[in-house]
Write a structure and sequence with these properties.
Chain A: It holds the Pfam family ATP_bind_1. Chain A: GO terms for molecular function: ATP binding. Chain A: This is ATP-binding protein. The complex is a heterodimer of chains A (200) and B (129). Chain A has one domain: P-loop containing nucleotide triphosphate hydrolases (Rossmann fold), CATH 3.40.50.300. With 200 residues, chain A is α/β, with parallel strands linked by helices. Chain A has 6 helices and 7 strands; from the N terminus they run H-E-H-E-E-E-H-E-H-E-H-E-H. By secondary structure, chain B is mainly alpha-helical. Chain B has one domain. In chain B, 33% of the residues lie in helices and 8% in strands. Chain B is built from 4 helices and 3 strands, in the order βαβααβα. In chain B, strands 2-1-3 form a 3-stranded antiparallel β-sheet. The N and C termini of chain B lie far apart (37 Å). The chains are: A alpha/beta (200), B mainly alpha (129). At the A-B interface, strand 1, strand 2, strand 3, strand 4 and helix 6 of A face helix 2, helix 3, strand 3 and helix 4 of B.
Amino acid sequence: MDSVRYDGERRGRRVPIALKILVAGGFGAGKTTLVSALSEVRPLQTEEILTGAGIGTDDISGVETKSTTTVAMDFGRITINDDLQLYLFGTPGQDRFWFLWDELAFGALGAVVLADTRRLADCFPSIDYFEQRGIPFVVGVNCFDDSRRFSLEAVRRALDLDPDVPMVLCDARDRQSGKTVLISLVEHVARQRGEPVPTP
Amino acid sequence: MRTDLPEHRHEWLDDDAGPVVRPYTLTGGRVRPSADGFDLVAYVLAKPDPDLAAYPELHPEHRLLVELAGRGTPVVELAAGLDLAVGVVRVLLGDLLSRGLVAVHQPPRATYLPDNDILKAVVSGLRAL
C-alpha cells in the first residue's frame, strides 16, 4: 500500500520522516540500557503477539484455542528536527523471534550490535543476521566494569568482522558514548552509499 | 471524548498473570488488518475534525486512536499509548483507514532515502545533542 494522503486537507500539517535503528546483541549486553540512555523520552514498551497457525481468517471461532505469546519491544525516540526522528528499537533476544526482527529490520537505516566481551559469542547471531541481509551495522563493545579489557583488534578477530565494519568502545549507560556509536553507524551508512558525511 | 489513557492495571494481578483479556478479543478475532503497510514507524494522521458520531460501531479504542493521531503519531507510539499490542492496533487502524478517518504515511525505506542530506542532518543533529 502506498501512503494515503489527504493532500487537500492537510494544509501545512507536515509529517516527519521516522528512521529506524535497531539495537541488537545478546541477553544482558545492554540493549535496553543503551536505548534508555539515548531516548529523549522514558523508553516505551510495546508488545507484539505471536499467534499460532490459522492466521488470516476473520473468524473468531478457533481464536480461543490459539496459543498466544507476547513479546515485549523497547523503543526510544530522538528528535533531530521538526522533519526527522530516529526510533531506536531494542531487538527481542531469543532466536524464535526472528520474524519480529524481519519486521523491525524492514526499511531500517542500520543496526548497532552490542558486544559483551565476557560473552562474545552471544552477539554472533545478530552479526550473522545483519550480514546476511546486507543491513549496515556497527559493533559497540560495551565496557562493563568487571570485564577484561581487550583490544578492539582482538575483538574484531574473534568476531571475524569485515574490515570496514566500524567497532567502537562504549558505555551503554552513557548518553555521550551512545551518541558516538549512533554517529559511527550513520557515517558508516553514508560511506556505504558513497557519499560520506564530512567530519567537523 | 476521553483525554486520559486507559488504565489496564488490576490491583489483584501483576504482570506475571499475563493479559487478562485475550489480545484479539477487541478486534473480534481478526488478526490481520484490512490493509497492509502499517510499518512500526509509519505516521498515522487523523482526518481533521472527524465525525466519530457517524460511526457507532467503533470501540472506545478506535476513538482514542483517532484522538492520538490528531497530531500525527507513529504506529508504535500509538500502541504504547493505548497499552495494546502492535498487531491489535494495526487491525484497529485498518478499520479507521477503510472509513477514511485516518491517513497513513509510510516511512521511506532507508535504502531509498530521498537524498543524502538526511544522513548529514542526522549526524549533525546527533552531534548537537
